[in-house]
Specification:
DUF4126 domain-containing protein; 4 strands; DUF4126; transmembrane helix; membrane; 8 helices; two-stranded antiparallel ribbon
Length: about 250
């Protein structure tokens, strides 16, 4: 092998890692691109994109499938698998996304919708993660699917817990505002992840940790609220203390 060919040789690694020389753009068998300077190896992994898509799937799985499919079908990104670009997949995702857009903004209906999607969202995150990593059924692909599914499950639990806390509010505006923020966050971060996967994954991790802390904070306040209300009712029934304002 000549020195020139040796310098242009590309090596592939699990999880979509690839390296190249001479500053050329290369693409691994899993669809991940990288650009490397002469004599310098810079691996690019699909795992950050899988993590971000898993976080987004836990919030709105149908939006993830729809957006990724549209990004791939319109040529915005070549990272999207063909399975997500099929017309039937896009149509089904669009219809289900519209259903979720309505149900997600109605108090208590959103919580019922979340319960019904406790299995759907993690499974969707796992499938999307496996498709992004590749379709060979290898151990790296299965690991990517597990990462997407587990991230989607945690993200889903954070969303469901937050909605339960918000539903204690008597006005419906908070549900609508929160739902719109979630939709915008999913769309914006997913689009950002296609071009800057590492930064997007870091933001998704930060949002996930913040959401977990917020859920614990909200649930502690809810428990304290119901405990105080029960104490005031008991005191009023016993004729001790002033009646509760409500």
């Amino acid at each position: 092998m000549s020195p020139t060919l040796a310098r242009r040789r590309v090596r592939s690694y699990p999880f979509g890692y690839s390296t190249a020389l001479l500053g050329t753009d290369t693409q691994s068998p899993h669809g991940c691109r990288c650009r490397c300077r002469a004599g310098y190896h810079r691996p690019v992994s699909v795992l950050p994109l899988v993590f971000t898509s898993g976080w987004a799937s836990g919030i709105n799985a149908y939006a993830v499938v729809l957006l990724l499919g549209l990004f791939g079908a319109t040529g915005v990104s070549d990272e999207v698998p063909e399975a997500l670009q099929r017309p039937e997949a896009l149509c089904a995702a669009a219809v289900l996304f519209l259903c979720e857009a309505v149900a997600d903004k109605i108090p208590y209906v959103d919580s019922v919708w979340d319960v019904a999607h406790t299995v759907i969202r993690p499974v969707s995150g796992a499938v999307v993660g496996a498709l992004l990593a590749g379709q060979s059924g290898s151990l790296p692909d299965l690991a990517a699917g597990a990462l997407g599914g587990s991230t989607a499950l945690v993200s889903h639990l954070v969303k469901a817990g937050t909605r339960m806390a918000v539903n204690t509010s008597p006005e419906p505006a908070s549900n609508i505002v929160l739902s719109l923020l979630e939709d915008l966050g999913v769309a914006g971060l997913l689009a950002f992840a296609l071009f800057h996967p590492e930064l997007a994954a870091a933001l998704a991790a930060l949002l996930l940790l913040t959401g977990i802390g917020l859920v614990f904070l909200l649930f502690s306040r809810i428990r304290r609220f119901w405990r105080r209300r029960a104490e005031r009712r008991a005191a009023r029934a016993a004729g001790v203390g002033r009646p509760a304002p409500w």
